[in-house]
Amino acid sequence: MQSLDKKKAKIISNIFFLIVVSLMVLMAVMVGEKEVIFPEVGAISAGMFLTPHRSWMTDNRKIFAYLLICGIGGMLIVRFVPLPYAVQLILSYTLALLIQSVSGTSFMPMISAMVLPVLLHTRSLWYIISLLIFSALIIVLRMILEKAGVKRADEYIPVKRTISPGLTAFRIIVSGIMICIAVGSGFRFLAAPPLLVAFTELSAHKNKVIRLHPYRIIILMALSSASGSFVRLVFSGLPEIFTVAAVLLSSVLFMIIFENMGPMVPPAGAVMLLSYLIPEKDLLLYPLQILAGISFYVLISVLKQNRNDNR
């Protein structure tokens, strides 16, 4: 089908992004369960609707399957692995990283699907229900956009299924250090799942984005987190139904930031939505934790790239 002009395609894609995130928050309000809010929906929606091309080398079935596998894995760790909190988080990241490495895809949001329930000690099945509903909704809406000529149907070329020992060890060590710092300091969002996803993407071999725009990535993630936390603070004290209006406003601000900051890093959408899941007492410091966390991950990734260049 003939493609629409760029302006109309962009408007439709933005509307689809708003539909997904607002429906998720509305469902959370209606059932009275915050666990319905799956922040990675913001990242996946950004990578499927807001970017010019699909952000990951994957297909629809693998998106759905690996989100479900990792979501269930995270819930099982919370329920059946009685280890210290920091060790649970490191274990969940390690397992998700290994699954992603052999998945035949570059789809990193599956990592957040496993780590998030461990970070928040989620036990509610609403988390899995929400994951199923909204990952399916995103996939269906993406198919509609492709059939309407709004988005191009990107070909899936399987990624080589391999675990690089050096890179895997590097990622686990760096993330483990930050997780221990986050848990030990009490500022647990230094190791927020979207940051772990961003680090995993940015630390990949020959990642051009981290070379060209390290400062813009930091600003993008910090502003995206602020677009969620500060708007939520403004709406605090109002009836829960106003949360939907708040997330719509946050999403509009996020889309403006996402489009104008340069590199379109999808985990930014997740840090925006995560602010609607965390305790209200953490909202003021949340953007600062995201700023500190992403700065650490970007610095380490840049140093790694420079070291590789000098070899």
Radius of gyration equals 18 Å
Assign a percent range to the helix content: 55-70%
User: What does the average pLDDT come to?
Assistant: 94
Please report the number of helical segments. Answer: 13
- Proportion of residues in extended strands: under 5%
Terminal CA distance: 48 Å
What's the shape?
Answer: globular
Biggest sheet features: none
> Which series of helices and strands comes N to C?
HHHHHHHHHHHHH
Assembly state? single chain
The structure class reads: mainly alpha
Residue stretches low in confidence (pLDDT < 50, at least 5 long) are none
Beta strand count = 0
Which structural traits does this protein have?
mainly alpha
Structure in a nutshell:
It is built from 13 helices and no strands.
What does the model show?
The protein has 13 helices and no strands. It has helices at 6-31, 40-50, 60-80, 85-101, 109-119, 126-147, 165-185, 193-202, 208-212, 214-234, 242-260, 267-274, 286-310. The protein is globular and about 50 Å long.
What is this structure's SSE topology?
Layout: H1 6-31, H2 40-50, H3 60-80, H4 85-101, H5 109-119, H6 126-147, H7 165-185, H8 193-202, H9 208-212, H10 214-234, H11 242-260, H12 267-274, H13 286-310
Helix pairs in contact: 1-2, 1-6, 1-11, 2-6, 2-12, 3-4, 3-5, 3-6, 4-5, 4-7, 5-8, 8-12, 8-13, 10-11, 10-12, 10-13, 11-12
